[in-house]
Amino acid sequence: VLVEWRFFIEVSGEQLCDAAFDQQDAEVVCRELDCGAPVQVLGEDAFGKGDAQMWTQEIQCRGNETQISFCSISSSQNHNCTSDNNVGLICSGYTDLRLVNGSDSCSGRVELQFLNEWGTVCDACWDMRAASVLCRQLNCGIAVSVVGLDWFGEGSGEIWADVFDCDGNETKLSECSVSSWSRAECSHRRDVGVVCSGSSLAVHDGLVRLSGERQCEGELEVSIHQVWRRVLLDSWSLTESSVVCRQLGCGSVLNFSSSSSSSPEHSHECVTGFQCSGSEAHLGNCSSPQTLNCSSTQQLSITCL
């Protein structure tokens, strides 16, 4: 699926001037072209110079019109417009998003609306950075975990296999760059889910998070009995680490080690004894751990690829 369209815009055979075009106008153009919602309005010859005459009157759309020809036209002329000022526009076919089958609107299977059709997202195309942007866009706080089928079940219909390459600081998914991805490995058994901090599931047993500065490395914390607890290095292996990295949408495990840092709120809240086969979708499917007093020299840090 192509998710991003880039245009320089002509109306009635004339190029539009960037000084006479705004976000409301962009919404109408993307809608009229069946290209979803506007991502970015660009000027200064973003897509090359056109050969058509320059339209110098201001188009004044409210944003809800179905065609740009239904918008009002200002009678004033902008005489500073030249072919160097033609306007460019990026539209995204993804027009809406939601979390489905969770305990509330802040947890669930990720579903995106492409134009008028809803579909699920392949877990091969999703990570914690994209999840963080989604949670922020839904006003659900930050992402706590990226989870798989075991949490929210299989969806139906289309599977969107485009990769959202987010920095994690964007306010909405449409601000992330998107690249296409082969659908060969994707099925509804790989539908991805997200748990945001605003959900009641954010303290569900088996949820994990890494407390480092980067998304996919740091000291491991696990939610057990509605309390976030550090994990002791005792009895931990690459097998358990691989489950955590998969659960976080962070790929495979690079390494794990002991962590020397500790904080007062975790000083008496550590766990040990997880035993995983390595195929589990999340740590909650592994054998139940024991709760022990913490030892700052034995706590666990993980780095995922």
Low-confidence stretches: 1-8
Binned, the helix content reads 10-25%
Largest sheet: 7 strands, mixed
- Approximate shape: elongated
Mean pLDDT: 80
How many E-type strands?
A: 23
- Based on secondary structure, the structural category is mainly beta
Number of helices: 4
What's the alpha carbon Rg, rounded to whole Å?
A: 24 Å
Short structural summary:
The chain has helices spanning 23-32, 128-137, 149-152, 238-247, and strands spanning 4-8, 10-11, 14-16, 37-42, 54-55, 57-60, 72-77, 88-92, 94-101, 107-114, 117-121, 143-147, 158-160, 163-165, 177-179, 193-196, 208-210, 217-224, 227-231, 253-259, 270-272, 290-292, 299-304.
Which terms would index this structure?
4 helices, 305 residues, 7-stranded mixed sheet, single chain
Describe this entry's structure for a reader.
There is one protein chain. Helix content is 11%, strand content 35%. It is mainly beta and 305 residues long. Strand 9 and strand 10 form a beta hairpin.
Q: Helices and strands in order, then pairings?
A:
Layout: E1 4-8, E2 10-11, E3 14-16, H1 23-32, E4 37-42, E5 54-55, E6 57-60, E7 72-77, E8 88-92, E9 94-101, E10 107-114, E11 117-121, H2 128-137, E12 143-147, H3 149-152, E13 158-160, E14 163-165, E15 177-179, E16 193-196, E17 208-210, E18 217-224, E19 227-231, H4 238-247, E20 253-259, E21 270-272, E22 290-292, E23 299-304
